[in-house]
Amino acid sequence: MTPNWDDMRIFLAVAREESLSSAGRILKIDPATVGRRIARLEATLDSTLFTKSQQGYVLTPAGQRLLEHGLHAEEAMRAAAGAVTGPTKTLSGQIRIGAPDGSANYLLPQVCAKISDANPDLDIQILALPRVINLSRREADMAVTVSAPTAGQLLVKKISDYKLHMVATEEYLKRHDPIRSIADLKGHRLIGYIPDMIFDRELDYLNDIGVDRVALASNSVSVQLRQVCLGTGVCVAHDFTLPFHPGLRKILTDQVCLTRSFYLVRHQGDQRNERLNRFADALTRGIRDEVLRLEAGPDA
């Protein structure tokens, strides 16, 4: 027998959330019903699609194979809906963006607020995670990344370059030995990412400048900046975060100036989705403009 779309929709939700209760919350149905529908789908296909583990519901090999076809079906349903409704003046529905927490905290809130103002019927969700967003499992409709993925069927578009510098508070610099060169950093407390939790080589800033010890570490940019603002040490910071932390001062600007890039990554199957294309264009323009504005500083 062929599974119906409603059962496939429930299957996709459980595959993404790895939980009956989380899937039910998203679908607005109770977890017991979700479980019964999954059992019905498994009976229809005569295959076990999930195994229960301590981490939740994990796809079996058969489930993995079904997931690929389910995602294609979902993309086809979205495209069909867009073809029927046609272009509209404003966007509606729900769109989820995945992003590392630097951009999620300091760029996306104001960018998404402006898009929301122009599209009052649109629900925008920002998924801030210190790891690569899994688009293949539809964790998000699109993702902002710090490197361009080379594997998978994805649409990748460069958004903007951005700068990073070393920073500290005036108070910290007055209380400690002067920092005139990179070599002087060895006498100071460095703040940065947890080394074995750096999920993208582009985030390994301190290694790039020869620092081999991180005394205070976090997988969150916001936590790192909070620690620096308390006057506890020195870190590498995005220039676009500095207007939010006026107490921080750039140091070693003639020796340390890193350039990184943001990319917008999407499902290849969405390239004809007019709604997502319009949102992606607005998001790209918004991030690019916001990086330029914040890097220019308060006097620009």
TrEMBL record:
Taxonomic superkingdom: Bacteria
Gene3D superfamilies in alphabetical order: 3.40.190.290, Winged helix-like DNA-binding domain superfamily/Winged helix DNA-binding domain
Parts forming coiled coils: none
Protein name: LysR family transcriptional regulator
Similarity-based family: Belongs to the LysR transcriptional regulatory family.
Keyword field: DNA-binding, Transcription, Transcription regulation
Pfam families membership: HTH_1, LysR_substrate
Domain HTH lysR-type: 3-60
SUPFAM superfamilies: Periplasmic binding protein-like II, Winged helix' DNA-binding domain
